[in-house]
Amino acid sequence: MNTFTLLAIAGAIIIVGLASYAGYLLLQLKKQKELQQQHRDLAIQKRNANIFESVDTICLATIQGQCDVSEAAIRLYNIMDYVQGKDRVDFDERYPATSELYHIVKDMPRGDARQEMKKQDRMRDNLARQKAEARLNDAIIEELKDLQQKVKPLNNAIDIKLVS
Q1: End-to-end CA distance of the chain, in Å?
Q2: Which positions ≥6 away from 5 have C-beta within 8 Å?
Q3: How is 81-105 classified by DSSP, letter by letter?
């Protein structure tokens, strides 16, 4: 065997070794990306579970008459906007009565800002809110029952496990 053949064999062995190592590194990178995606998915599930727990509480309180439907509409519309992933809901489409009430009352001052309003303006807002609540109340209660059923199984079905 001549020197050229030996060098060619050594070069081929080095190339095969480097290719194998590159393949190994690519496999490790793929595993790392899959693990990162699993962690992201788990974080979304945990976050959604916290949101759904709050949604369930608001729905229950409103259905039982312990929470004003206008306040519930504002809180639910806003909190459901934070849901991520496959559990995200188009609130305007799925819950039209609650969404309609939200859009009616969302810009009305609340708390201290409401107290600082002129009495006539405050009464005008109250009348508009009360009319909308009376008109939409039954539909909203049905939507809240549906929403509560939608989030309850999701909240209970979260499988939290250690991902390694």
Answers
A1: 51
A2: none
A3: TT--GGG---HHHH-HHHHHHHHHH
Question: Which pLDDT score, from 0 to 100, does residue 114 have?
Answer: 76
- C-alpha pair distances (Å), 47 with each of 26, 42, 58, 73, 80: 32, 9, 17, 21, 12
Any idea where the domains of the chain sit in the sequence?
8-155
Is residue 22 within 8 Å of 150, Cβ to Cβ? no
Mean pLDDT, contiguous 10-residue spans, the chain (164 residues): 85 93 94 92 88 92 92 93 86 92 87 80 86 92 92 61 53
Longest dimension (CA), the chain: 106
Q: Cβ-count burial of 5 within 10 angstroms (0-12 exposed, 13-18 middle, 19+ buried)?
A: exposed
Cβ pair 78, 106 in contact under 8 A: no
Round to whole Å and give the CA distance between 134 and 30. Answer: 56
Q: How many CA atoms lie within 13 A of 50 on its CB side?
A: 7
Around Cβ 97, how many Cβ atoms within 10 Å?
Answer: 20
Quote the pLDDT of residue 163: 53
Predicted TM-score (pTM) of the model is 0.72
Q: Is residue 148 within 8 Å of 156, Cβ to Cβ?
A: no
